[in-house]
Write a structure and sequence with these properties.
The chain is of the alpha+beta class. The chain is built from twelve helices and twelve strands.
Length: 420
Amino acid sequence: MTTLSDNIQRIQEELRLHDRAMSASSCGITIADALDPNLPLIYVNEAFEHVTGYPVPEVVGRNCRFLQRDDRDQPGLTMLRNALQRGENCTITLRNYRKDGSLFWNELFTSPVFDPNGKLTHFVGIQTDISSRKSAEEQLVTRTSELERTIAELRSTQAMLVHAEKMNALGQMVAGVAHEINNPISFVNSNLHSLRRSLDDLFGAYNKLETLINAVSNPDTLQAAEIIRKESDLDFLQGDADDLLGASIDGLGRVRRIVEALRTFSRLDEAELKIIRLSENIQSTLMIARLELQNRVDVATDLDHLPAIKCYPAELNQVFLNLIVNAAQAIEGHGSLIIRGKDEPQHIVLTFTDTGKGMTPEVIAHMFDPFFTTKPVGAGTGLGLTIAYKIIHDRHRGKISVESTPGVGTTFTIRLPKDL
């Protein structure tokens, strides 16, 4: 029959096993007195001292809130207080501080202890230092963000390279077409001027013959000459031929200006830095964009006073074309586009102001993001303003910004340094 001493020995062995188990744990284990409103600690294991740096004698009798020091504004603390008041289990993550002041992340699990009558008597806390895991999570988040940025930059770079290749091919084609058109235009223009001189000589010779006939005063000859003049309607032909030739020469002049605008816009010979007048480039770009403007957008410019500036002309032309086309597409019905220039001591400032439908702050916030577009699917790549930003910001060390009011219009402002 089991004696009292045997029971005591068994209980002592169980207690020693309990102490060894608590000491062997790598987690800090605490027991707090739930009967005391301040919840003082009545037991901490050796691992708690290893995790926090606080010796056991300095901890017993204190509330464990000292581990947070002044860092009390933590969502987990509110959850912990509510769980303690309700006598429930709770798992939270806290920023705690060791005795030497160093930060560590603590995953705390608390559980209530009840006596046989169901009365809450203690709280057991298990504290795990998860600083390494938290650091790994933060590094993972950082690397993920960096990877996402790298992928976005690669996509943007790839798209820009494709765009640049297309623009280069387009520039070569435009320059080739302009060259091919220019030759026959010059030929036709020269022939028209020769034809005008020949017709002037022809009508002049006829008028001299008619003067000689009138001097002879032969009635039959005079009558025959008059019949020929009326039947051929020479007076009308002379005036009409001059008008037709004048209109044709003017038309060829317009074609020649368009061809010159194409050559200026393509600027294959100006891929490098060159000193140019921005007014000439913008005017040539406006001529290229005439189809988009379609006589429904009134364009006004104030640029002639601007000095020449060193820049990459071909790239700036892409920016100008993008802003002009965007303005035209933003205008529903009839509207206006005003392009102004301002000469500042260190910069040239260009503004493109339209009376289009405008943009919301949410749209403006993403205006220069790659692949962002408000146009329908298939109507835009979302790269136009991204490329414009890179050309102004990266290539010219300038700035491009936008201000817009929905229903009123939009203004793009470009600042280009003079000392590029």
